Amino acid sequence: MEIQDLFVVALMPVAKTLLIALVGLFLFLERVNILDGGARHHLNNLVFYIFFPSLLASNLVDSITASNIVSLWFIPVSTLITFIIGSALGWALAKITRTPQHLQGLVISCCAAGNMGNLPVIIIPAICAEKNSPFGDSSTCTKNGMAYVSLSMAMGAIFVWSYAFNIIRAYGTEDKSNKNGNFTISKLDNGSEPLLSTFPNVGDTEKTTRHGSEDEVTASVFDVIKLRLKALESKINLKILLRPPTMASIVGILIGVISPLRKVTVGDNAPLRVIESSVLLLGDAAIPSMTLIMGANLLKGLKRSGASLSVIVGMLIVRFIILPLCGVAVIRFAQNYGLVGSDPLYHFVLLLQYAVPPAMAIGTITQLFEIGETECSVFMFWNYAVAGIALTFWSTYFMWILS
After folding, report:
1. pLDDT at 252 over 60
2. pLDDT in tens, 315-366
3. What is the DSSP string of 15-44?
4. Where are the domains of the chain?
5. Contact 301/379 with Cβ under 8 angstroms?
6. Cβ-count burial of 122 within 10 angstroms (0-12 exposed, 13-18 middle, 19+ buried)?
7. CA–CA distance, 223 with 229 (Å, rounded to integer)
8. CA distance 392 to 54
9. Domain spanning 3-182+244-402: CATH 1.20.1530
């Protein structure tokens, strides 16, 4: 296929996303004021709690089966690699540009967590629908592509709401603690005293050994271990793994791979097919809603300032130059060693993981903690403004090297 044909195929889904985002931008204008702060907040809650989990679950149930999930094992591995490389580059960028402490977690997260949700879901079906698509028949391409994208989207959601959530929280909390001059890890369940004060020192241990029984010493050790585990849990916040997107991903995968559950819920003759149809209907609202919110947030980022120009330029270089090149190297290596099969569409989805802009969920996380909201809006504006060009270029290049 000619390079200009590939360019047109790559341009269509990006243009579709930008057009919907422009509608969201228009609705956020003061003279229109439909997507104002309150409306955007409520729509964001609907997306987070209802639409996006429904989209994840419906796509996973429909496309992931016990027979194909084993062959897709490299998708979570590739997702993890993007986060590792992006985190290292983001940490280096934060140190080189001397980013303030409370924003370092935001910079690292923006470099590590890519938008593996709504963008690939729009891009892949649009590419498959093009008559000059290099990935073959439209229906087969869409079905296989959505299986790849759904699992990629689920893995991305799990990593964002476990890793990015906690790293933004950790840097922001540490900075606030340093400003106050004190840092308390946690409190006991009754809130009576800091956790650190309950740890015995060497003198206390020796005294216990001399005057107490061995049972008391053993009990003391177990108390210390228990308190340290509580401190670790408070810092990592494992409850975030129970957020709607991650729970929907887990439920969708389980129903897809467990044959009895799949038979009663999936298909025209399934007894509980009305559940699948209802979830699918709710999931259809996720993409336009998320893209409208994205457009409104981009205008907010355009109006505000406060982010360092060096951080913005460095982030753009990381996300749209270094990471895609690393992705080409990683996937080429996987191809040479037979780790990813022979389907070029599978390879394209894996490569796309490295070329997308930062995950929009990062903006939601900054709003939850009230850390770097203004700077996040600016980062998102410039990343998504450049993504229109960068994604078209990289999609064209990826299809060219795979065709």
Report:
1. yes
2. 999 999 999 999 999 999 999 998 988 889 999 999 999 999 998 778 778 8
3. HHHHHHHHHHHHHHSTTT-SS-HHHHHHHH
4. 3-182+244-402
5. yes
6. buried
7. 10
8. 28
9. yes
